[in-house]
Queue: 3 jobs
Job 1
Amino acid sequence: MLCRDVKRAVYLFLDGQLGEMKQNDYNSHLKLCPSCDTRTKLQEKLRRFVRKRVDHISDAAPDRLKTRLVRSIRAFRNEWSRADGVLD
């Protein structure tokens, strides 16, 4: 796996959405590349920070907004899986 692949797949990796082989490739790359390892850890910290801050307001979000967000996330994930075979 190359650095550009890691950059594109970081959210799929953090969500556990990569196939087993890609997940292993990603982990192997992180062991060899301090830059990508740091980037992945930073993204993970950022996600935890955001989740912590919005968890208490997520119930207050309108259902229409929640539906739009879920659709956008699914579309993004589908686009990634078709574009590069990242999920393989």
Job 2
Amino acid sequence: MQSMNVSDTRPGSIEAARDAAVRSARESLEDPVVLSWRDDHRHIIAPEIPGAATENRWEEYGEANGGRLRVDVGRDYHFILGEAADFLEPHSLFTNVADDQGNVYMCITGACTEEDRRRINEGFGSGGGKGG
């Protein structure tokens, strides 16, 4: 798996860090999909897997499910991303996510942030929403 550091930013939230990770991932991946992440600032990982909450479970999950690139944003935020084309068909676990600049990409629903979940439930309008 490749690794990338985005150290020239100080994101104030997991969503801002995720947006920076996805922008940077586009250097290596055509259509990045967030598979898993870790927020050291708030001490949470995603997806949460009951009974399997080891320190590196988020990373193991990402690698085992198509992860191609690890992106560390600052010192507190870490992401495993894959290539959307590696998945044969849209799956209900994928959700479109739009960043503040209007770029739309996908995350696995279990790896979406709380803000993503709020936006998904309220709807994005033409910028995304449920589905792949």
Job 3
Amino acid sequence: MSLREPEPPDPSSSAVLRLNEALSALSNAHGKKFLEMLRHGTLMVEIFKPAPADTQQPHPQDELYFVVCGGADFVHGTEHRRVKFGDVLFVAAGRSHYFENISIDFAVWGVFYGPAGGEMA
């Protein structure tokens, strides 16, 4: 087994990202909390497991999170919302946000897209 991170698939025509493969690759990524799984133009998809603490900073692109395991509190501005498997979250470019009270199994697909500053810039 290689210790290198896997190369993101070539999305020239299509791609299938498998959750179990992404989580396995992330667990082998030496303590990283996220791992890029696909890039195509402005689109980037990553697997993200922020436990035990989320230290992310605002991103320059709009983003979506698809909760695929566990649960956490999503903090966005003054809002605190419990999120769990099956939820989809949107965050506009440049907005402060993070997860807290994170279950040990919490994981999301993070999808970044569009121009810097977001679609509405």
